């Protein structure tokens, strides 16, 4: 890590801590995910590294390199200076149709590319969707800790974030990770437009049984162009 100057902490989680660093030679900024060596470096970390470094797309955080320190494994990645898309939505309350379309087109473009590379993300959410620091922000999908290559086997483990998780992930022994990603992207789009989750009990948000339900009707106070098509079940004649 001698090449990099650590500037500040920019995030933390079960994995460890993420720090903003500067390349002492080029002056470029990078985000570094530090994972403590030992039990935390298991198969999922190996998958994260293998899958992420195989992906090169403008809407995916660019993987740079992996380094070992005496105490940590360090994953060096592109720095997305604009922060989380989730934070932007929280500040705005919700997006207009045009703004939601702008970000969703980029999100689904990145996911489509992952799937073309036979990689499913499996934890797609607005908190894992970053923005670069440009005036017209570009979406950058990050955190491939739960990702899986479809070339090896169909996913079996129920991973993901409750509000975004597809129902088949919980109800079947095997599922299609790509389809589950598409479900999660749809939840993200809904949150962009409505400013709330489609499947969540505010009083009991972590109760999976209450989260997975059927959206009977799109909120009428949200005006978007495709609402001319009815979401209601046609009345029998």
TrEMBL record:
Keywords tagged on the record: ATP-binding, Kinase, Nucleotide-binding, Serine/threonine-protein kinase, Transferase
EC number: 2.7.11.1
Binding site for ATP: 33
GO biological process, one term: response to osmotic stress
Keyword Ligase carried by entry: no
SUPFAM superfamilies noted in UniProt: Protein kinase-like (PK-like) (SSF56112)
Keyword Lipoprotein: no
MF terms in GO: ATP binding; protein serine/threonine kinase activity
InterPro entries: Kinase-like_dom_sf (IPR011009), Prot_kinase_dom (IPR000719), Protein_kinase_ATP_BS (IPR017441), Ser/Thr_kinase_AS (IPR008271)
Domain Protein kinase: 4-237
Catalysed reaction equations from the record: L-seryl-[protein] + ATP = O-phospho-L-seryl-[protein] + ADP + H(+); L-threonyl-[protein] + ATP = O-phospho-L-threonyl-[protein] + ADP + H(+)
Family: Belongs to the protein kinase superfamily. CAMK Ser/Thr protein kinase family. SNF1 subfamily.
Function, as annotated: CIPK serine-threonine protein kinases interact with CBL proteins. Binding of a CBL protein to the regulatory NAF domain of CIPK protein lead to the activation of the kinase in a calcium-dependent manner.
Family annotation (PANTHER family): SERINE/THREONINE KINASE, SERINE_THREONINE-PROTEIN KINASE SAPK1
Protein name, UniProt field: non-specific serine/threonine protein kinase
Organism: Pyrus ussuriensis x Pyrus communis
